[in-house]
Amino acid sequence: MGKPLMNWSRGNKVLALTSVGVMLVSLDISIVNVAFGSLVAEWPESRRLLTWVFSAYNIAYAAGLLTAGRLADALGRKRAFLTGLAVFMTGSILCAISPTALILVIARVIQALGGAIISPSAIALVLPEFPVEKRSAAIGIWGAVGAVAAASGPTIGGLLVDSLTWHWIFLVNVPFCILAIVIGRGLLHESRDESAPRSVDFSGALLAVVGVGVLTLVIVQSDQWGWLSNRSLLISVLSVVSLLAFALRCNRTSHPLLDLKLFRLRFVTASAFSGFGFSAGFFSLIFVNTQWLQAVWGYSPSRSGLAGIPGPIMAALVAAPAGRAAQRFGHGKVVALGGIILCSGTLLLSATITETPNYLLHYLPVTIYTGVGVGLCISTISSAATAFLPRTQFAMGSALNNTIRQVGAALGIALISSILITAGKSGDPLSGFHKSWVVTSAIILIAGIGMLVLFRRPTSEQLAAADSVSN
Q1: Are residues 421 and 435 in contact, defined by beta-carbon separation less than 8 angstroms?
Q2: Could you give the C-alpha distances from 468 to 3, 391, 441, in angstroms and in order?
Q3: Interior angle at CA 65, CA 213 and CA 408, nearest 5
Q4: Residue 198 confidence class, pLDDT cut points 50, 70, 90
Q5: CA distance 301 to 308
């Protein structure tokens, strides 16, 4: 009895530690949103450049994930995780002390690259600590932390900006990074893919960074450039060519940045499809809800953030039980149920909300209800993507999952932003919100149904490989 208890206790310690890294990365995707006004007040002549404080982080994070995942597998997941924390902390400090808007944007890129290193190495450190039958529940907790952090970013950012200054939305990361590095050096065990060379295919890495990076660039800039402008079309072609060349490179090299055989696994392809759609819907829902609270109901940034907190709390409460339910009933069924709940809740919000603020009647019940849907989906999709992989591919699988979801999130927000801008120009801005909710709900429903149709439980051979202790 003593040994399993000790193993369980250690597993939870590793889970808690790596969740700190996930929390910081997820938080900084959204925490900066509420500080834009303060940043413009600091550098009024750099308003256009300051929009890249958001875009640069998302682009660099998405572009760096695949390379970071392969580095973690080849050079060591503990080393990668601690290095990522150090880079992320350095970027955070540079953001806080930036003397110009340009340096702030550069510092955000450094911060994002640290985050890209943290994410795949973190999950690769967690999964070996749990037997395969318990990994879905563990990832449920791990993913819930990320979801709560992302959704709480506007609240925390608003409180810090209102009570202190914008510099603190970056400085708040520093003590968490230091604590995680100190504890991680003693707690974490090093692991790597012993069959892989201690180097990375840099030609493939360059193609991946260019392909994913410029794809994310054209998505996040679509509302300014236009989807069919010459600039957007040219960059889209560059992205497609780079990604096709990357796929060919991965197919021909013995130790590719991304093993394309992963897509032969039904649980990987199902989670890729569903994760892309869910992220597009989930992050666009956060965006449109926040815009409604501030633009229509007149909420302040901090108040609008606080208004959304019950949803993430409910998601966190549901995520771990959802992981256990997925292990018992199947990931496809759990995600489909979550998609139906989230879709119906979003449509209910669109149908019942009024221009006159009534938080207790029109917003609170719906955000709690949709929080259940988020909790059922967000971590269940991640566990489907990674829990059944061989241990040598934990970081690679996580990087693939995160890359797809990050691109999906960027696309969803860009799409909804375009809908709101078009409606505003037409003189009927409220129609843009309602159309956005309908589009978001449709995307989420498709993601849930797609998971139900595409997902297949891993075979006994795949489960045996996933539970193997050998690297």
Answers
A1: no
A2: 18, 7, 40
A3: 60
A4: low
A5: 11
Ranges 96-110, 138-152, 318-332, 431-445: which has the least confidence? 138-152
Q: Give the separation between CA 412 and CA 285, rounded to whole angstroms.
A: 9
- What DSSP element (H or E) covers 155? helix 135-163
pLDDT of residue 247: 87
**Domain check: are 72 and 183 in the same one?**
yes
Mean pLDDT over 166-186 rounds to: 91
- For residue 241, tell me if it sits in a domain: yes
| Same-domain check for residues 54 and 160 | yes
415, pLDDT greater than 60: yes
What mean pLDDT comes out for the span 238-256? 85
Closest CA to 386 of 402, 367, 409: 402
Which residues, in sequence order, are CB contacts of 206 under 8 Å at separation 6+? Answer: none
Domain assignment of residue 296, yes or no: yes
Domain edge (last residue) among 240, 256, 272:
256
Q: Looking at residue 344, what is its pLDDT?
A: 95
> For residue 285, which of 146, 392, 440 has the smallest C-alpha distance?
440
Percent pLDDT > 70 in the chain is 92
pTM for the full predicted model: 0.81
Structure tokens at 151: 């959704």
Query: Last residue of some domain: 234, 256, 278?
Result: 256
Backbone phi, psi, residue 257, to 5°: -65, -35
Per-residue pLDDT of 72-83, as tens digits, reads: 877 788 999 999
Q: Give me the torsion for CA of 63, 69, 72, 73, rounded to 10°.
A: -150
User: Whole-angstrom Cα distance, residue 33 to residue 422?
Assistant: 21
269 neighbors 454 (Cβ within 8 angstroms): yes
Residue 30: domain span: 2-189+257-467
Give the whole-angstrom CA distance, residue 355 versus residue 328. Answer: 43
For tokens 């709940």, the residue is: 341
pLDDT score, position 471:
42
The verdict on 275 and 333 lying in the same domain is: yes
Is position 194 within any domain?
no
